[in-house]
Amino acid sequence: xxxxxxxxxxxxxxxxxxxxxxxxxxxxxxxxxxxxxxxxxxxxxxxxxxxxxxxxxxxxxxxxxxxxxxxxxxxxxxxxxxxxxxxxxxxxxxxxxxxxxxxxxxxxxxxxxxxxxxxxxxxxxxxxxxxxxxxxxxxxxxxxxxxxxxxxxxxxxxxxxxxxxxxxxxxxxxxxxxxxxxxxxxxxxxxxxxxxxxxxxxxxxxxxxxxxxxxxxxxxxxxxxx
Length: 226
Ligand code: FOL
Hints:
Blueprint: E1 7-13, E2 18-20, H1 31-42, H2 53-63, E3 68-74, H3 75-80, E4 92-96, E5 112-114, H4 117-129, E6 136-141, H5 145-152, E7 157-165, E8 173-174, E9 187-188, H6 191-198, E10 207-211, E11 214-224
Parallel strand pairs: 1-6, 1-7, 3-4, 3-6, 4-5
Antiparallel strand pairs: 2-8, 7-11, 9-11, 10-11
This protein binds folic acid (FOL).
């Protein structure tokens, strides 16, 4: 059931785990990195081919755009997305807020609003059940700090798609520390496993992007826990 849907965190962070500054991303716009975020959060995975009729039917449903991934975010992350890109297209947007939906900026009737991630998943299930939304493919948690923290405490959070920005920027919002150190259960996978997970081939790492004549490099990683 949807309540137990695996959750994937997707995040870009500096070496000190900074993720935000003054309500937006701390670094200048990294076009290709943002394009990676958009592609990966939109792509609905195809199940392994078992040669079964059921699998073929599933595949067909996918090709017809029957499924759509969900992006789950906190209210501040919702507000940080430029209005022209909000709700994030081709994804079911779920906004977590203690405020009533009428008080949230730019929330259209195709956006699910809930008071917690768990309630968001329940509301998403209901949304699909009553035919307002497409069946859910993957569910991504896209931030910010408090939502990442809550998601990391959930058993169903098994994967983190982490972009390690190699340069430090001043930040006032951080990704929880839990990922590193000898005691952590989180393990970086191989590049092949990352490619399998995101469904695309990736160039050799680190990636580089020129912004205002400055080269910013970053590494794409997949972390998993048992
Ligand atoms: N994860 C990664 N890897 N990179 C990020 O930049 C990132 N950002 C957030 C969460 N996880 C991330 C939250 N912040 C948009 C803006 C801010 C944002 C997330 C998304 C946004 O406007 N996205 C559009 C693409 C816009 C464009 O093409 O310029 C989208 O359709 O996804």
